[in-house]
Sequence to fold (314 residues):
Amino acid sequence: MAVLGALSVTLEIPDLEPGVKFYTDAGLLSDVDGSVARLRCEGHKRSSVVLLGGAPRKRLHHISLRADDLPGIAMRAGNSGGKVGSGPRRFDDEGLWIEDPHGMLIHLSDCEPDPEPEAGPPFEINAPGRLIRKRRSAILPSASYPPAKPLRLGHVLVFSPDVPRSVSFMTEVLGMGLADRAQDVIAFCCARKNSDHHVVAFAKSTGVGFHHASFLVGDPDEVGRGGRALVAKTGRGDWGFGRHTIGSNFFHYIQDPWGSWFEYYSDMDYIDDYAHWLPQNYAMADSLANWGPPVPHDFVHNYEMDTKLETASA
Ligand SMILES: [Fe+2]
Fold:
C-alpha cells in the first residue's frame, strides 16, 4: 500500500478575497490567517483547499495525499525521476515532501482519514418495470433544499507535460493503480484499496498546473442544484450537469476566479480492490463525458502556462 486518498490542494494566488468568496459560495468553510486561507468541509478538521495569497499569479503549489509506507515511497522516489525534499516555506516538515519527475510538489501524510460522510436517504428512481416510489413526489419545492454541502474532497486533476510518465510515478513510487485512461491525453489513478475511481488524475498540457478539485455531494440532484446555484452566485462559466464515462460520476463544473475549475460529483465508480479492476484505454470521444452540454472552449486550458498575466474572463 501507499497512497490511500486525497487530502488537499494548495494554490498560490494573488488576492485571497476572490478565492475565499468562491470556495465559501461553493459550500466550504473558511479560516483566514494573514495571507493564508484554509477551506474545509463541514465536520472536517483538515483543510481540503489551501490558498496562499500574495503570489504574482495563480499557480499549483502542491497536492497533499494520505499515505502509509512513507519510508518506502522516499526510497523509490529517487529511482524514478523524483526528488525528496524538505517542507517549503510556510509548511512544516511533517510527513514526506517529494517532487514528481515534472517538478510537481506532493505532500504525503500518514494520518487518520476524515470521518466518512453518513449515509443519506437513498436516491431512488422509478424505471420501466421497477416502480419503487409510489404515492409521493421525488422533488420538493426549490426553497426546501439547503445549499449544496461538499462532503469531502474526492480527487484532484492536474496538468502534466507527459501523462504516461506521471502515471508511472504514481503507480511505481506512490503505489497507486491506473484506473483508466484515454490514450496518452488523460489518465486516472486510484488507491489500491477502498478508493473512488480516481484520486489523482492527469491531463496533457505543456507543463504542470491545477485543473480542478472535485467534491462529493449527497446525490445527483445536489450536483445539478448546487452547480446551478454556484453559477448564479459567482456569474462564472460552467460545464454540466452531465455524466462522465470514465468514473461514471455525475458532474457539474464551475470555473474558479483563475480559470481552473471546481466540481461537484456524485455516484462515482468505486474500486474496493484494485486486483479485481480492469483498466480501460478509452477513445478520445469518451474522454470527457458520456453526455452533457457542449464543453467550454477553455475547459482543458492550462492558464498556468500562459506567458502573459491573464485570467479567464467570468
Ligand atoms: Fe473530476
Summary: Residues 3-113+150-303 form a domain with the 2,3-Dihydroxybiphenyl 1,2-Dioxygenase; domain 1 fold (CATH 3.10.180.10).
